[in-house]
Design brief:
The structure holds 2 protein chains of 2 kinds. Chain A has a domain of about 35 residues. By secondary structure, chain A is mainly alpha-helical. The chains are: A mainly alpha, B mainly alpha. Chains A and B meet through helix 2 of A and helix 10, helix 11 and helix 12 of B.
Chain lengths: ~50, ~550
C-alpha cells in the first residue's frame, strides 16, 4: 500500500511543476483581446452604414 | 554527464567561412536599416507637419527609400544571414562548399541589385513606393535591381537547401535539426511566393517600362504582386518564429515545448500563406466576391499556426518559470530574464504582435477592410508586425549573433544599453503606431504627404495625433541609430571572447516527431495544389477578360 502512495505523490508533484494553467489563462486572454478588438471595429462599421 | 554533453552542444561555434558569409549579410542589413531610419525620420517629421522638405527632395522618394530599404533590403539580408548562421550552427558548425558558394553568389547578386535600385530611387526615377503598383512607372533599372535582389535571395536559398541536403546525406534516416528544418521551410515559402513578383517584373513591368509594350494589365499586375505580398509577411515572420521556438528556450533556461508542433506550424505556413493574396485586394474591382471570400477563408486558417506559436511560447515560459520554483497562475512571469536584452527585445516584439496580429484579422475581414482600407491604420498595422515584432526580434538576435560571428562578447554594459535601445524603440512604436491606428479609424489616408485638405475641419482634427506620430518617429530614429552603433561595436570593437549561440534542447517529455513532416514531395504538392485552386481561375479570367491596358504614368 505504501508503495503505491509514494509514486502518486511524486506524480502529483510532477503535475504541479508541469502545470500549464497559466498558459491556458494567457491564451484565453489573448483570444478575448482578439474578439473584443474585432467586434469594436465591426461595430464601427455598423454605425457608419 | 548530461550537463557536460549539453555544454559541448552549446559550445559549437559557427566556423570562420560560414561566419563571414552570415556577417556579410547582417552588416549590409544594418547599413540598409540605418539609411531607412533616416528616410523614416524625414517622412514622419513631414507627415507630422514639423518640417518641409527642400524642393529637390520629394516626399514620395523618401517614402520609397524607407519602404524598400526597411521592408525589402534590411529584412532579406538579415534573414538570409541569420538562417545561414543557424544552419551552420545546428549542423556541426560549418556549411558545405556548395552552400558557401551559392551563399556568396546570392550575396553579390543582391548587392548589385541593391545598388541599381538605390541609384534609381536617389535620382528620383523610382518614387513608386515599395509596392511599385502599376501604372506608376519607375525606371526599368529599378525593376531590374529589385529583380536581382529577389533572384539573389533565391540563390541564397539554394545554398540553404544544399546545406540541408549535405546534412541529410551524412545522416540518413535522421530527423533534421529543428532550426535547419525551419530555415528550409522559410526559403521554400520564399521561393514559392516570389514566383508571383518575378512574373510581374519580368513579363510585365520591365517590357512596359522600357517601352517595348505600350500598356500594362494593371489588374493582373496587382494580382501577381499580392500573390507575393502576403507570404512576404511570413518570410519576415518565419525566421522570427524560428528564433522564438529554438533560441528563446535556451536564453530563458527552458526547453523547446514540442518539436512536432513547431514543425507543423511551419508546414501550415507553407500551405496557407500564399493562396490568400486577395485579402489585400478586397476593394479592387475585377475579382468576383466568391474568390475574395475563398481567400479570406484561407487567411483566417493561416491565423492558426500563429496561435499555435503563441500557445507554445506561453508554455515554454510557464514551464521554465515553474522549473525555477514559480507558483500561482502567473508567478512564472516574474522568473523570466527581463534584464537580458536577448530575451527582452524579442519578447517586446511578441507583445506587439498581439495587437499586430489582431489588426491583421480585422484587415482581412471584408466589412472591416472597408473601414480601414487605404487609411493610415494599415501603416500602423505593419509597423507593429514587421516594424516591432520582426525588427525587435532581429535586434534581439543581433545582440548575440554579431559577437558570436566575430569572436567577441556581449558585455554587461552593451546589454544595459541594449535594454535602453529596446525600450526607446517600443515606446516610439507605441506612440507612432498607436496614433496611426486611431487616425486610420478616423479616416486619415495613408501614402500622402502633409496636407490639411484646404483646412477641412476633419483633417484639422487629425493634426495633434500626427504630431504624436512625428514624436514616435523621432524616438524610433534615436533607437535605430543606437542599434546601428551597437552592431558596429559588437562587430569590430567589443572585447574578444566567446558568445554563445543559444540553441534550445527539446523537452524530455515531448512526443516523437512524425516522419511525414519531412516528406517534401507531399508538402510541396499540397502547397501547389492549394495555390492552383486559389489562383488559376482568377488569373486566367483577368488575362482573357483583361481590362483596358494602361500606359505608364509618372505621378511625381
Amino acid at each position: 500500500m505504501a508503495q503505491t502512495t509514494a509514486p502518486q505523490t511524486q506524480q502529483r508533484h510532477e503535475e504541479h511543476t508541469e502545470s500549464l494553467r497559466g498558459t491556458l489563462a494567457s491564451v484565453m486572454i489573448l483570444g478575448t483581446f482578439i474578439v473584443v478588438c474585432w467586434l469594436g471595429v465591426f461595430i464601427l462599421f455598423l454605425t457608419r452604414q | 554527464m548530461a550537463q557536460a554533453q549539453m555544454a559541448d552542444v552549446q559550445d559549437v561555434r559557427v566556423d570562420r567561412p560560414a561566419a563571414r558569409l552570415s556577417l556579410a549579410h547582417v552588416l549590409v542589413a544594418f547599413l540598409a536599416f540605418g539609411i531607412a531610419a533616416i528616410a523614416g525620420l524625414l517622412q514622419g517629421l513631414v507627415r507630422g507637419g514639423v518640417i518641409t522638405l527642400p524642393k529637390w527632395l520629394n516626399y514620395y522618394e523618401v517614402l520609397t527609400a524607407h519602404g524598400v530599404y526597411m521592408g525589402l533590403v534590411f529584412t532579406t539580408f538579415f534573414i538570409i544571414g541569420f538562417l545561414f548562421s543557424g544552419v551552420a550552427r545546428t549542423t556541426g558548425g560549418s556549411l558545405p562548399p556548395a552552400g558557401l558558394r551559392l551563399g556568396w553568389t546570392g550575396w553579390w547578386m543582391m548587392v548589385v541589385g541593391l545598388v541599381m535600385a538605390t541609384v534609381t530611387v536617389l535620382t528620383n526615377n523610382a518614387s513608386v513606393l515599395y509596392t511599385f503598383y502599376a501604372p506608376m512607372k519607375a525606371s526599368p533599372y529599378f525593376y531590374i535591381g529589385t529583380g536581382l535582389l529577389v533572384v539573389g535571395s533565391w540563390v541564397g536559398g539554394f545554398g540553404i537547401f544544399a546545406s540541408y541536403r549535405a546534412w541529410k546525406r551524412k545522416n540518413p534516416g535522421k530527423l533534421s535539426p529543428l532550426f535547419t528544418f525551419m530555415a528550409v521551410c522559410t526559403m521554400v515559402l520564399w521561393q514559392i511566393a516570389t514566383i508571383g513578383v518575378a512574373l510581374e517584373v519580368v513579363l510585365q513591368l520591365i517590357p512596359w517600362s522600357f517601352g517595348w509594350v505600350p500598356t500594362i494589365n494593371v489588374l493582373l499586375s496587382r494580382m501577381l504582386l499580392w500573390y507575393f505580398g502576403h507570404p512576404l509577411v511570413y518570410f519576415w515572420l518565419l525566421p522570427v518564429y524560428a528564433m522564438w521556438y529554438v533560441n528563446i528556450p535556451r536564453i530563458i533556461g527552458g526547453k523547446i515545448f514540442s518539436d512536432s508542433l513547431a514543425r507543423l506550424s511551419f508546414l501550415l505556413f507553407i500551405f496557407l500563406s500564399t493562396p490568400v493574396g486577395f485579402h489585400h485586394q478586397l476593394m479592387d474591382p475585377g475579382i468576383s466576391p466568391e474568390w475574395k471570400f475563398f481567400h479570406v477563408l484561407l487567411t483566417m486558417a493561416v491565423v492558426v499556426p500563429s496561435l499555435m506559436t503563441a500557445f507554445s511560447m506561453f508554455a515554454v515560459f510557464e514551464s521554465a518559470g515553474r522549473a525555477k520554483g514559480a507558483t500561482g497562475l502567473f508567478g512564472w512571469f516574474k522568473k523570466l530574464p527581463w534584464n537580458d536584452v536577448r530575451f527582452f527585445a524579442p519578447v517586446a516584439g511578441m507583445i506587439a504582435f498581439i495587437p499586430g496580429g489582431t489588426g491583421g484579422i480585422i484587415n482581412a475581414s471584408y466589412q472591416m477592410n472597408e473601414v480601414v482600407h487605404n487609411t493610415i491604420w494599415v501603416t500602423g498595422h505593419f509597423h507593429l508586425t514587421v516594424g516591432t515584432a520582426v525588427a525587435m526580434t532581429f535586434f534581439g538576435i543581433a545582440y548575440w549573433l554579431v559577437p558570436h560571428l566575430t569572436g567577441r562578447q556581449l558585455t554587461p554594459a552593451v546589454n544595459r544599453l541594449g535594454l535602453v535601445q529596446a525600450v526607446i524603440w517600443a515606446t516610439g512604436m507605441l506612440l507612432m503606431s498607436g496614433s496611426m491606428h486611431i487616425l486610420g479609424l478616423l479616416g486619415s489616408p495613408r501614402r500622402t504627404a502633409y496636407t490639411t485638405y484646404m483646412n477641412d475641419p476633419t483633417a484639422l482634427s487629425w493634426m495633434p495625433l500626427q504630431g504624436v506620430m512625428a514624436l514616435g518617429g523621432s524616438l524610433l530614429f534615436i533607437s535605430a541609430m543606437l542599434m546601428v552603433g551597437i552592431v558596429l561595436y559588437l562587430a569590430f570593437f567589443a572585447p574578444k571572447g566567446f558568445e554563445e549561440y543559444p540553441i534550445g534542447e527539446l523537452d524530455d517529455t515531448a512526443e516523437t516527431t512524425p516522419r511525414f513532416m519531412e516528406r517534401w514531395s507531399v508538402i510541396l504538392s499540397l502547397a501547389v495544389f492549394l495555390i492552383v485552386i486559389a489562383y488559376a481561375y482568377p488569373v486566367i479570367d483577368v488575362i482573357q477578360n483583361a481590362p483596358p491596358g494602361s500606359p505608364p504614368l509618372r505621378t511625381w
